[in-house]
Amino acid sequence: QSVLTQPPSVSGAPRQRVTISCSGSSSNIGNNAVNWYQQLPGKPPNLLIYYNDLLPSGVSDRFSGSKSGTSASLAISGLQSEDEADYYCAAWDDSLDGPVFGGGTKLTVL
Amino acid sequence: EVHLVESGGGLVQPGGSLRLSCAASGFTFTSYWMSWVRQAPGRGLEWVANIKQDGSEKYYVDSVKGRFTISRDNAKNSLYLQMNSLRVDDTAVYYCSRDGSSASFDFWGQGALVAVSP
Fold this sequence. Notes:
The complex is a heterodimer of chains A (110) and B (118).
Chain A: E1 9-12, E2 18-23, E3 34-39, E4 46-49, E5 63-68, E6 71-76, E7 85-93, E8 98-101, E9 105-109
Parallel strand pairs in A: 1-9
Antiparallel strand pairs in A: 2-6, 3-4, 3-7, 5-6, 7-8, 7-9
Chain B: E1 3-7, E2 10-12, E3 18-25, E4 33-39, E5 45-51, E6 58-60, E7 68-73, E8 78-83, E9 92-99, E10 105-108, E11 112-116
Parallel strand pairs in B: 2-11
Antiparallel strand pairs in B: 1-3, 3-8, 4-5, 4-9, 5-6, 7-8, 9-10, 9-11
């Protein structure tokens, strides 16, 4: 049971827009920044969004992040087959005094 | 270019020990916290431990406290994870990562597989 809650799976057709939610509490998302990771099959995770809505250098602007209260979302527009991957949210947890991850969401491009 | 290369993984029996190493290059190692993050087969990510730039502060997830020890050698640009009293549920790929603060891990190694089995 992960501290942050994500849907196990989402899907969308090419060129569509999908969103992935991440729900937490006041001890993590409510009081700290949210980060998102993309993990392609067989590869290590890659930082996709940091500090809620910032894109690291080299990440496509088709990806965007937002946060409101104790929840956050990752949006992917203009879906492409190469976006098929697992996506994880993460945030610092003040009660656990360490980083916590969501359980991950598998994105399928139909 | 940032590179993180893990080594030292393998198969070990329950109760055994293993030491993971991570060789870092392409950035100023002494400027960053470093972390170990693991992923059990078919499961999600779990932060394991992190260490401050000078090694003076170390933090662990509850499930490994007292069994795992994180350390670093700044002269060798290397990060380590000493794992003792290993359990079957420690089986995972262990990733070395550069810790950008507040759960922001901006670079990852390819991972080292640790399999704990009788």
